[in-house]
Amino acid sequence: MDPVADRLLATLRRLAPTKVRVYDSADDHRDIAVPSQRKRWGHVVTTIEARPWVRCELLDKAGAVLGYVENDGAAGEVEELSAPGGGAGTAQSRWFLEMMIKAQTVALSYRDKEHSVLMAGMRELMDAQTSAMRELTNLYRVQVGVASDVAAMKAAAENGGDIDQIVKLIEASPQLLQLVGPLIGMLKGPKRIEARSVAKPAPAPSGAAK
I need a surface site. Which of 47, 158, 165, 167 has the fewest CB within 10 A? Predict the structure, then answer.
């Protein structure tokens, strides 16, 4: 019997529990009943050692814990740790513990990859939002400029400005020129020139004295 089993047997005899609860490396537990036969503690130890375990709780009738025994024995041969079968209970439990650690490592690596993909998606979303805000800002500036140019053109028209002055205001504004460009040609077309009536002297009556 190994040192852990010796310590377990001594603790069982000293505390005399009603029930024993054994935990494995995955923190799953199984309850071991205490028989009333002779050499019952040796039977309990044999039952516990039949499967890998890492911690043993000794319970009284009410289920309260009387004491603990940890399976912290020294590791066995390397061959015993390489595979579960045929070795001592301690070696088997160490092997299962190593497998559990490897599984957790793989799970954490997958989680890190998922987080990386999620962060990349969030960065792309933030870039798209920043670009959209930039476009909205530029559009707002254009609208403000157009409103200012339209106000200036309206003021010129209200103050009696002619077509040439309004055309110059439109040509000076790239925004207005882009919006009403087709109208510029119409405004620049042949102008109707009002004929001024020129006062001519009335012809002198015939036979009038000079």
Answer: 158
Residue 17 is predicted with a pLDDT of 95
Flag the least confident range among 42-51, 87-96, 135-144: 87-96
pLDDT at 162: 61
Does pLDDT of 19 surpass 90?
yes
Pairwise CA distance, residues 119 & 30, whole Å: 43
Domain boundaries, the chain: 3-73, 141-187
Asked if residue 119 has pLDDT above 90, the reply is no
CA distance 102 to 139: 56
* pTM flag (> 0.90): no
